[in-house]
């Protein structure tokens, strides 16, 4: 499996080297983007959702077909309060889900509500763009448990205990530094992970690609394998893979882009059939809404009040 | 405007959380292998943060690849509202023993003296980000791809704890009319590329309206209706401000002779201005021990700031080229 994946990655990067990036817009016909359209859609995302930023990343990894300062998009420290499996149980109980494109069993779920938001029975296959309603979510209480990340091989801390400059020795420091997510209903205590979510441009598939970098409750890097706990179980390990990030060091979890274009094309077709002419700079809002079906509990911001298309 | 007697309580602060990306360690490893080798000189780094933007989670101070731009000689990242810089120093060691035997108290004193000097000299008013100075001790084991590190965020301490009388949403503190002006002034400050990363400011209310100004405008603001001290608050708690306000209060006591002041804890909702998520507290503190001479280095106040413990991260499965080759075979 790992070998097959590497083989594919090698082939993909070879194809990317010998072919030039798409220059003709095929946004409506194929659901794909040119690099220029990716930048245009990204600029709009940054303008409308200010928690997103462009970054340039490692200069040695820069792609020539994108501006130097707009290599990829990122939003950092996005909370993920519940594991996806728990979320899905509730979702199923609340009415289930609809496959957008199910003929080959690889369809995408399209009718989830906002990530982590209230569960509602959408009869509309076009995702709604209203603000996530935060009122109905479980209350978060601060527990007294303090998470201390005990370091195993720093031998003896007793020397340091005499220090009075530790934050834990300071009477004016709040001594519950880590947020504990506490859901009163089922007494199920979960600690809060966060994610840095990045969107790169995949030249081979000509679509945006989402990467997830997880941090545990004490903001330590999360093993990418554990990211699967926060991914819809329908997609874990099939559509979410662990690969080298094109602009950052190391392995990161990524939603594999092989099915993105057909799904985006379908979403656009639905809009067109309703007389809405979708604009390319709204692409990432539609795209991120669709990603929410894969990562339902990660509360990133893609919400804005706007009408899709020129109307 | 409330005249009911209110009880004064100790103001407690939410400590910074550190967060380090794999990218940072990768950059540090390269720097050590290619340039530093066994050189132990302290490295000038930058941490990045933003005001809290989600009511249920605080913002950490994060080290990323760009944190090393001063040392790598790469371009510093452009001014970005989600990446306010904090100046830091990285003390790298060559062995685990060296890491464990660092005199952390001495280092803390040295770093605290820098903050104190920045305040006393007035430099912190010109460049308020200096108030967020931090440092890290580190041991990078490049054979095993393990990194051991310990952060400290020095916050100067008053001899008697700061008291406060309220901690309320800014939307309750300001009148409806003021609120509109405050939102518009703060949004202008946060939107302008020139000021978006200046995380400490003055909120100045006068008959002419509301303006947000840099700390260096303190003198110019005198005689006005009201001045609040503002800061980008990483804390999400509806009861406590974050760590950065501590050095700001010391500055206000030392440089401006204040004994009480109202503070605006600037927070956002998904990156947008929303006064229901900002908080105002009224802080009271002592005169700063009568210490005002910057030359008098013996008089550096005590500080707190070490994270509760050292941390270590094992990136062998993510980074080590040998391991990657093996797992691919």
From TrEMBL, chain A:
Q: Superkingdom of this entry's organism? A: Eukaryota
Q: Which residues cross the membrane?
A: none
What GO terms describe the biological role, i.e. biological process, of this protein? autophagosome assembly; autophagy of mitochondrion; glycophagy; nucleophagy; protein transport
GO molecular function terms attached to this record: Atg8-family conjugating enzyme activity
Has keyword Cytoplasm?
Answer: yes
Localization (cell)? Cytoplasm
Write out the entry's keywords from A to Z.
Answer: Autophagy, Cytoplasm, Protein transport, Transport, Ubl conjugation pathway
Kindly list the GO CC terms recorded for this protein: cytosol; phagophore assembly site
For this protein, the record's Gene3D superfamilies field holds: 3.30.1460.50
InterPro entries from the entry? Answer: Atg3/Atg10 (IPR007135)
Question: A Pfam family in this protein?
Answer: Autophagy_act_C
Q: Cytoplasm among the record's keywords?
A: yes
Q: What does the similarity note say?
A: Belongs to the ATG3 family.
Q: What is this protein called?
A: Uncharacterized protein
């Amino acid at each position: 499996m790992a070998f097959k994946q590497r083989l594919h990655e090698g082939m993909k990067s070879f194809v990317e080297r010998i072919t030039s990036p798409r220059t003709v817009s095929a946004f409506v016909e194929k659901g794909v983007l040119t690099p220029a359209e990716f930048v245009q859609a990204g600029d709009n995302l940054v303008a409308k959702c200010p928690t997103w930023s462009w970054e340039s990343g490692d200069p040695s990894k820069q792609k020539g077909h994108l501006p130097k300062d707009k290599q990829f998009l990122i939003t950092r420290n996005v909370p993920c309060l519940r594991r996806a499996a728990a979320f899905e149980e509730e979702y199923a109980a609340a009415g289930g889900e609809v496959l957008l494109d199910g003929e080959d069993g690889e369809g995408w779920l399209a009718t989830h509500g906002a990530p982590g938001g209230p569960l509602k029975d959408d009869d509309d296959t076009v995702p709604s763009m209203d603000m996530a309603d935060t009122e109905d979510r479980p209350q978060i209480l601060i527990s007294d448990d303090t998470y201390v990340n005990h370091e195993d091989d720093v031998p003896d801390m007793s020397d340091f205990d005499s220090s009075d400059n530790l934050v834990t020795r300071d009477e004016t420091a709040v001594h519950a530094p880590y947020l504990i997510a506490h859901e009163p209903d089922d007494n199920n205590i979960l600690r809060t992970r966060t994610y840095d979510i990045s969107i790169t441009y995949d030249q081979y598939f000509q679509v945006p690609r989402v990467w997830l970098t997880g941090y545990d409750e004490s903001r330590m890097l999360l093993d990418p394998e554990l990211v699967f706990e926060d991914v819809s179980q329908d997609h874990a390990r099939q559509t979410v893979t662990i690969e080298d990030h094109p602009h950052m060091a190391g392995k990161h979890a990524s939603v594999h882009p092989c099915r993105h274009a057909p799904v985006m094309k379908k979403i656009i077709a639905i809009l067109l059939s309703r007389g809405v002419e979708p604009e390319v700079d709204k692409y990432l809002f539609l795209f991120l809404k669709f990603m929410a079906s894969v990562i339902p509990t990660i509360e990133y911001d893609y919400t804005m009040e706007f009408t899709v298309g020129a109307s | 405007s409330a005249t009911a007697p209110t009880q004064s309580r100790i103001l407690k602060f939410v400590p910074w959380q550190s967060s380090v990306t794999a990218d940072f360690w990768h950059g540090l490893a390269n720097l050590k292998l290619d340039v530093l080798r066994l050189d132990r000189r302290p490295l000038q780094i930058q941490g990045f943060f933003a005001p809290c933007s989600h009511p249920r989670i605080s913002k950490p101070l994060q080290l990323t690849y760009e944190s090393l731009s001063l040392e790598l000689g790469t371009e510093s990242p452009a001014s970005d509202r989600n990446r306010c810089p904090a100046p830091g120093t990285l003390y790298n060691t060559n062995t685990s023993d060296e890491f464990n035997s660092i005199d952390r108290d001495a280092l803390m004193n040295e770093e605290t003296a820098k903050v104190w000097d920045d305040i006393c000299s007035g430099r912190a008013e010109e460049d308020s980000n200096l108030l967020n100075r931090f440092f890290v001790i580190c041991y990078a084991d490049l054979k095993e791809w393990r990194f051991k590190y310990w952060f400290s965020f020095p916050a100067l301490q008053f001899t008697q704890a700061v008291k406060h009388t309220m901690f309320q949403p800014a939307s309750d503190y300001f009148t409806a009319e003021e609120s509109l002006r405050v939102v518009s002034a703060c949004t202008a400050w946060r939107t302008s590329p020139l000021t978006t990363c200046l995380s400490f400011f003055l909120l100045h209310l006068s008959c002419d309206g509301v303006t947000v100004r840099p700390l260096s405008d303190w003198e110019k603001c005198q005689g006005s209706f009201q001045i609040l001290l503002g800061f980008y608050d990483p804390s999400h708690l509806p009861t406590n401000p974050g760590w950065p306000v501590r050095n700001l209060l010391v500055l206000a006591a030392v440089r401006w002779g204040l004994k009480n002041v109202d503070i605006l804890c600037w927070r956002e909702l998904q990156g947008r201005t929303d006064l229901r998520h900002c908080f105002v507290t009224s802080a009271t503190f002592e005169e700063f021990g009568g210490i005002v001479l910057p030359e008098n280095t013996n008089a550096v106040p005590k500080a707190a700031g070490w994270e509760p413990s050292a941390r270590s991260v094992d990136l062998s499965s993510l980074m080590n080229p040998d391991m990657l080759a093996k797992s691919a075979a």
